Amino acid sequence: MTDYPIIVFAKPPVAGVAKTRLIPALGETGAAQLHARLLEQTIQTAVKASQTVYLFTAMEHEHEAFIDLQSRYAITLLPQVDGDLGARMQDAFARVGPALLIGTDCPNIDAALLVRCALALQHHDAVFVSAEDGGYALIGLHQPFDELFAGIPWSSAQVMPKTVERLHKLQLRWLEVAQLWDVDTPDDYERLCVHFPDLCK
Questions:
Q1: Which is nearest to 78 in space by CA: 90, 61, 103?
Q2: What are the DSSP calls for 67-132, one per residue?
Q3: What pTM was computed for the model?
Q4: Is 148 exposed, middle or buried (0-12, 13-18, 19+ CB in 10 A)?
Q5: What integer pLDDT is reported at residue 201 of this predicted model?
Q6: How far apart are CA 127 and CA 42, in angstroms?
């Protein structure tokens, strides 16, 4: 367990809204159901690693799935602010303080990896789990450095490279703890079903 809070960012599992790039393969309902399973798996992992878990919700902040997870896992629900992903992450760190932040697309992140990242954060300004597609699946910070989030081309292969440029510019001590794959495309879904068949019901 770690003393660092864990922030989870999530959309509601609404058909036509969640996992839209998987809709051609799974349909709107199937994509939303997969998102719901990934969301719960992420919360289960987070509560194994930290006693303090914040679920920052987007869009339908009082969606029944969020309320259900709050009641079953004793997590705190907070609404994401408006703005791009960078603005929303910056706000979350400003509200929570030193923490780890993850999404729901990377089932490879387990409790042991979260604890490793928390231990690394004790000796660094920032820690990351990068994603094979050029983004990152986890960021841990002691404070919300504005330049890490402003003007980043989110949802592109340049997210991590641009972030690394900013880290060097700010002369921050940082560590890439691991690199993993996440679940965005039909090919990713096939990979998910090989490694995590329970998530592909």
A1: 61
A2: HHHHHHHTPEEEEPPSS-HHHHHHHHHHHH-SEEEE-SS-TT--HHHHHHHHHHHTT-SEEEEEET
A3: 0.96
A4: buried
A5: 72
A6: 19
Q: Which tokens go with 179?
A: 């690199």
Q: Say how many residues make up the chain.
A: 201
Domains defined for the chain, CATH in brackets = 6-194 (3.90.550.10)
As a whole number of angstroms, the distance between CA 178 and CA 33 comes to 28
Of all residues in the chain, what percent carry a pLDDT higher than 70?
A: 100
* pLDDT recorded at residue 56: 98
Q: For 34-78, write each residue's pLDDT tens digit.
A: 999 999 999 999 999 999 999 999 988 999 999 999 999 999 999
